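ok new one. same drill as before - structure tokens go in, u give me an amino acid for every spot. 294 of them this time. try not to just spam alanines like last time pls lmao
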């Protein structure tokens, strides 16, 4: 009697992982361990925003937790009676002027740092970095004296200059890092074609700097829009004050109009939210590219 032995089953090798994809720790984690912390964080983040909307949209004296019936009386009050229309216009002027000045000067300085070698270049870069550790409050007195001698106190130009000076160091560092990522051979090719340095920069380099310029400009605008200290110290006339100072006037020692304060806060936040909503893609690209050492 012959006994047949069945052949052993072949061992199937596991399929290799797709090329270029590394297995990450959170790929094997249960979904609730990811979504529950994110949900808690989102809840704590959105509650203050809902609270502001609640006070701004519900009628004065109401204690309802739902803004119904909704009213716009608080927005009308702060815009007309409390002068927020004027504050908003002044803030737009300061923000746009700071954006333009910071971008133009940082573009020239960043190009010099990226393309030219000169003595004390490393020391100059170190000085730019160290200037970021100096608080603005420390320089209020000398700045006030300088602007007083220039007859610029109670002028929006003093706030624009102060904001621009404090934005320039970081802006120049970011722009110089972004220019280093542009191949120098592109400019050389433009020179061979008959362009001078300025024309080559305008035609070849400047279009490639759009993400960096948007990042620097938006950062300067948002900082100038939200800054409270310089506008408070250099502007005494109520018709020259900005939105942050206007929000401060809504609070007194005796009482606080929460509805008007919430409406003013929403007015102050809307331009910043709109700016970031439109430029978020360029903002991330600009900051990441400007931070890379070429």
């Amino acid at each position: 009697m012959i006994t047949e032995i069945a052949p052993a089953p072949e061992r199937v090798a596991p399929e290799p992982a797709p090329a270029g994809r590394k297995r990450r720790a959170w790929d094997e984690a249960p979904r609730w361990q990811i979504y529950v912390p994110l949900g808690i964080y989102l809840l704590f983040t959105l509650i203050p925003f809902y609270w502001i909307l609640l006070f701004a949209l519900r009628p004065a004296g109401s204690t309802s937790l739902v803004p119904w019936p909704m009213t716009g009386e608080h927005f009308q009050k702060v815009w007309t009676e409390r002068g927020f229309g004027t504050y908003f216009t002044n803030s737009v002027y300061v923000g746009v002027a700071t954006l333009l000045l910071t971008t133009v000067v940082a573009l020239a300085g960043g190009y010099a740092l990226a393309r030219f070698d000169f003595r004390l270049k490393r020391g100059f870069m170190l000085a730019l970095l160290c200037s970021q550790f100096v608080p603005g409050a420390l320089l209020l007195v000398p700045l006030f004296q300088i602007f007083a001698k220039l007859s610029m106190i109670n002028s929006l130009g003093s706030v624009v200059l102060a904001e621009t000076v404090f934005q320039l160091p970081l802006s120049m560092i970011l722009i110089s890092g972004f220019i280093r990522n542009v191949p120098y051979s592109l400019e050389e090719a433009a020179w061979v074609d008959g362009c001078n340095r300025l024309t080559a920069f305008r035609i070849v380099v400047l279009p490639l700097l759009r993400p960096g310029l948007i990042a620097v400009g938006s950062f300067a605008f948002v900082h100038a829009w939200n800054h409270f200290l310089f506008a408070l110290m250099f502007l005494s006339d109520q018709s020259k004050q900005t939105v942050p100072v206007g929000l401060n006037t809504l609070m007194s020692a005796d009482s606080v109009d929460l509805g008007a304060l919430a409406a003013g806060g929403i007015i102050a936040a809307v331009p910043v939210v709109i700016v970031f909503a439109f430029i978020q893609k360029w903002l991330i690209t600009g900051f990441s590219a400007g931070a890379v050492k070429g």
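Confidence is low (pLDDT under 50) at residues 290-294. and btw Residues 94 and 156 are 7 Å apart (CA to CA).
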